[in-house]
Write a structure and sequence with these properties.
The protein is α/β, with parallel strands linked by helices and about 525 residues long. The structure holds adenosine-5'-triphosphate and magnesium ion. Adenosine-5'-triphosphate binds next to helix 10 and helix 12.
Length: about 525
């Protein structure tokens, strides 16, 4: 008796019958087709090998042994020697009762005449066994992906601090060079040798800054896509998360297709950043993988963000690739369903996407035409309607103009920088020196001693993860002494949080800055806080 689920199993399995006797072959093909299998017949080993190399691989081979041209033994040797075919299991069927027949290298051996029920049982047993093997391989791949995520998050964390001061210093040197260039032009005329050299240096600096900013985007993406430790949801700008996903596959897209972005301004959504980012990444990767490699000039990926109603956001990822054949459209969201070779696709991408979109109360749909392309459409509710006004959700930073430092306050502002990396302190000090007086501390206790000693700061930039006393403990201590100063603390985060740090950030409204810094965003935030402090 075949096991439960036999009918469903039969309906999506392919068998190859290799048998030189026309009657037996045709009978087997027709009986097994009636069970629901897709069955192909070949009349000898050679014909079977040719067919196998040109067609999608069957799940199982029924193999006669004594055949003309290429017999079953020779076929099996050739099949095992071909890495693409070696793993397809076979049932040997033979009237031959010699030890040579019984010793055939096959998963099962049945003597002819074969009892039909025994044949069905054997087919079923082997298909179930290979299903288990496939599942194990896929689970191992999933495990590997998880470890890769953890590794990526760790690497991103380590890169953050050095990259933070690379960017800060590049920002500083660029600004200083710009001033020098102006002085140089004014003093000696634009066309002097000195002026030309200064412009060369400026260009080199711009390139270095571009490169460092690319690294920052990649590090940011790695943090986003590492496995989330918890499902913390915050207000998110969909376009920014989408751009991070695109940055991750920037290289693959660049070599394979033209990327066209069409972003409209849309409201924020309330979601988990890592999961949303992973969803976009999966859709974009699928689009890239659907584009033929040898057609780079004609390949296109269009990414659109727009509103589909007053409180609905639509993100579309459209490719002009292969399209999805009708017969697989019903299965693409199934976990582990993949038409890609092992090692390229695990078949988890769309099922993850489906889970993420469903958990956000959205819809994930697609349209596809074979040979023309595919569009995946993610429709998500905007934050306001779905969740009301979330009391605990951190509001995004208010927009601060990029204008010069506020002139409204009297006297020089005082800024405190607390970071256990002295170079980060030094680089911030140099960058912020134009905004006011910068005092640095490489530990929280040093900073606390200053406050206890009566010092007052308009902005306190504080690393969240500090040894001994961390940023949250420092905040708590300052709050007891001077609540207004505690409110002016800006927490610098490297992206990897302890549970304690994450919980803390959820309970306070203080502004945050991600390391490595975006120099413009850093200056805007500091200027905004200074101007708040002055009013
Ligand atoms: N843009 C697309 N164009 C053509 N086919 C697609 C596209 N997106 C998905 N598919 C089809 O859907 C299948 C399932 O996609 P899914 O993302 O779940 O898995 P995968 O891409 O095969 O593997 P993984 O995402 O785990 O690496 C793919 O194997 C492919 O056949
Ligand atoms: Mg995929």
């Amino acid at each position: 008796m075949p096991s439960p689920g036999f009918e469903k199993r039969a309906s999506d399995r392919t068998l190859l019958v290799v048998e030189d006797d026309d009657d037996i072959r045709e009978t087997l093909v027709s009986l097994l087709s009636m069970e629901g299998f897709r069955v192909t017949g070949c009349s000898n080993g050679h014909e079977a090998l040719t067919w196998l190399r040109a067609s999608p691989k069957p799940d199982l081979i029924l193999l006669d042994l004594r055949m003309p041209i290429m017999d079953g033994w020779q076929f099996r040797v050739a099949q095992k020697g071909d890495p693409q075919l070696a793993s397809i299991p076979a049932i040997a069927l033979s009237a031959d009762s010699t030890p040579k027949a019984a010793a055939i290298d096959a998963e099962a051996y049945l003597r002819k005449p074969v009892d039909y029920d025994t044949l069905l049982d054997t087919i079923d047993r082997l298909l179930v066994a290979s299903e288990h093997r496939d599942l194990e391989v896929r689970l191992a791949q999933t495990d590997r992906l998880t470890s890769m995520g953890t590794l990526a998050a760790g690497a991103a964390h380590e890169i953050n601090n050095p990259l933070a001061y690379v960017l800060l210093n590049l920002g500083y040197v660029t600004e200083e060079m710009q001033k020098l260039l102006v002085d140089c032009g004014a003093a000696a005329g634009e066309s002097t040798l000195l002026g030309a050299r200064a412009r060369e240096v400026m260009l080199a600096l711009e390139h270095a800054r571009d490169g460092a900013e690319r690294i920052r985007d990649i590090v940011w993406s790695l943090k986003t896509f590492s496995r989330p430790e918890s499902e913390t949801c915050v207000l998110l700008n969909v376009t920014r998360v989408l751009d991070a996903a695109l940055a991750m596959v920037h290289n693959e897209i660049r070599h394979r297709a033209k990327l066209v972005k069409n972003y409209s301004e849309v409201p924020e959504i309330f979601a988990n950043e890592a999961r949303l980012g992973q969803m976009f990444l999966n859709l974009v990767l699928n689009a890239v993988q659907a584009l033929p490699e040898d057609r780079a000039l004609a390949n296109e990926i269009h990414v659109t963000v727009e509103c589909s109603g007053p409180d609905r956001i639509v993100v579309e990822v459209r490719d002009n690739g292969t399209g999805i054949p009708l017969q697989v459209r019903g299965r693409i969201f199934e976990p582990f369903f993949s038409t890609k070779p092992v090692g390229v696709g695990t078949g988890l991408g769309l099922s993850i996407c489906h889970g993420v979109v469903a958990s956000l109360g959205g819809d994930l749909t697609f349209e596809s035409e074979v040979g023309k392309g595919t569009v995946f459409r993610v429709e998500l509710p905007a934050a306001v309607r779905t969740i009301g006004a979330p009391p605990a959700a951190p509001r995004p930073e208010r927009r601060i103009s990029e204008a010069a430092p506020p002139a409204s306050f009297v006297g020089r502002s005082r800024m405190l920088v607390v970071d256990d990396e002295p170079i980060v302190c030094f680089s911030l000090e140099r960058l912020l020196a134009r905004e006011g007086d910068v005092i640095t501390a490489t530990s929280a206790s040093q900073a606390l001693a200053m406050i206890q000693g009566g010092q007052r700061f308009d902005v306190l930039l504080c690393d969240l993860m500090l040894p001994e006393m961390d940023g949250s403990a420092l905040h708590e201590n300052i709050r007891k002494i001077d609540p207004a100063q505690a409110e002016r603390m800006v927490f610098m985060t490297g992206g990897v949080f302890t549970v304690r740090a994450r919980d803390f950030l959820e309970t306070v409204k203080n502004k945050r800055l991600s390391k490595p810094f975006d120099v413009d965003a850093l200056l805007s935030l500091v200027r905004g806080t200074l101007s708040d402090a002055a009013t």
